[in-house]
Design goal:
This protein has about 375 residues and is mainly beta. The chain has three helices and 25 strands. Strands 12, 13, 14, 15, 16 and 17 form a six-stranded antiparallel β-sheet that branches.
């Protein structure tokens, strides 16, 4: 910064300038993303659920939280080597966390009873089809979890694809048992499991979706809505000006990075995304954008945080960022992201074993004033 000498000739100006620098520095220091060791430690465990990606949370009205997980290691930790087998056991699982309790031993692991692969969400006994859960929302006495159905399409880690048959899994909140699956409308290739926000006044639930636009290597974010009384039917889609029943007319509310997650924090709507990463050293940034209404407008996504989970100088394959507004504290908004090893830079499979900490969520805290300016202007009760 260039300072003209005549501004420093006046002692009052000098005092004002120094004060401004100190205040600015203090504000900058306050608005710094920090790690959350307690929440990160919550995912380091030796019994029940051991490791996976996912870590998408659904807040229940009684204060409990359900953590929705993808491909998971269950009860396979070897304390002698501090490793797990190379291959996970289930395609999805969940963790049921008591209200404000971050002790891993008090959390219940939810998996299925089979047959065969004992995934928690399993709409068919055919294990060539599986489910990866997205976000969920409690409506009445039922938790609705968005489920994308996948199918094996070839060999290798990328030999899978969507069937186009997405559904809501229905969980009884009282005992967290799956009561059934409702097939959702055809969304024309859009996954609407990126976030749910309920408007208590109108009764509508806003559902956020995304699609990767391959020719631009860019992800578009969309919003739809349905009434809380009819979550499977009569969906409407925002076309940029109004709501339409035709998904083909849906318009993007944001464009940019990948793996979007949308939530409501106070009175505002937060989009989080990650840099495209499908292997080591491809990306390290988390991006954000904030809007004042469920349909935006949202500004261009900006960098929020650069992960620092390096190993021997390499960044991991990372993805699936998610905000958890039910866990706001004095350090700010809880945000998690997932890492999945350092291949091909560093081997993950060592003699058929895996370091589980290379396949576990990480947690950070984002100060509210960094996201929203003056936090006192935000009504934090949703």
């Amino acid at each position: 910064m260039k300072i003209h000498h005549y501004l420093l000739d006046n002692p009052i100006t000098v005092i004002f300038f120094i004060s401004a620098v100190l205040i600015t520095g203090a504000c900058t220091e306050q608005a710094t993303v920090i790690k959350d060791p307690k929440a990160t430690g919550f995912f380091r465990r030796t019994e029940g659920w051991i490791a996976s990606d996912g870590a998408i949370s659904a807040a229940l009205t009684d204060g409990r939280t359900v953590w929705l997980m993808g491909d998971s290691h269950i009860d396979d930790y070897d304390p002698a080597t501090q490793t797990v087998p190379w291959l996970f056991q289930v395609r999805n699982a969940a963790l049921l966390q008591p209200a404000n309790d971050w002790k891993p031993e008090n959390t219940r692991t939810l998996v299925g009873n089979g047959p065969d692969i004992k995934s928690f969400f399993k709409s068919t006994p055919n294990d060539s089809l599986w489910i990866w859960p997205g976000n969920g929302i409690q409506l009445g006495d039922t938790l609705y979890v968005y489920c994308g159905e996948l199918i094996k399409t070839g060999d290798g880690i990328w030999g899978f694809g969507g069937t186009g048959r997405d559904m809501f899994a229905k969980l009884k909140v009282a005992d967290m048992t799956v009561s059934g699956y409702d097939v959702l409308p055809n969304f024309n290739g859009i996954n609407f499991g990126a976030g749910f926000v309920r408007n208590e006044h109108s009764g509508y639930v806003y559902a956020y979706g995304y699609k990767l636009i391959y020719e631009r290597i860019q992800t578009e974010v969309y919003v739809a809505r349905f009434h809380a009384d009819t979550p499977v039917s009569n969906w409407e889609y925002w076309n940029g000006k109004d709501w339409t029943p035709r998904v083909q007319e849906v318009a993007a509310i944001s464009r940019g990075a990948h793996n979007p997650h949308v939530s409501k924090v106070g009175d505002r709507y937060l989009i989080l995304t990650t840099e495209l990463s499908v292997q080591c050293d491809m990306g390290k940034h988390i991006f954000w954008a904030v809007g004042d209404s469920p349909t935006g407008p949202f500004p261009e996504q900006e960098k929020l945080y650069a992960i620092d989970d390096t190993l021997q100088g390499h960044y991991p394959f990372f993805y699936t960022v998610a905000a958890h507004p039910q866990f706001i504290n004095d350090d700010g908004l809880l945000v998690t992201y997932c890492i999945n090893g350092y291949e091909p830079c560093l081997p993950a499979n060592v003699d058929g074993r895996l370091n589980p900490d290379h396949y576990r969520p990480r947690a950070i805290r984002v100060p509210l004033n960094m996201l929203f300016g003056n936090p006192s202007d935000i009504h934090l009760s949703n």
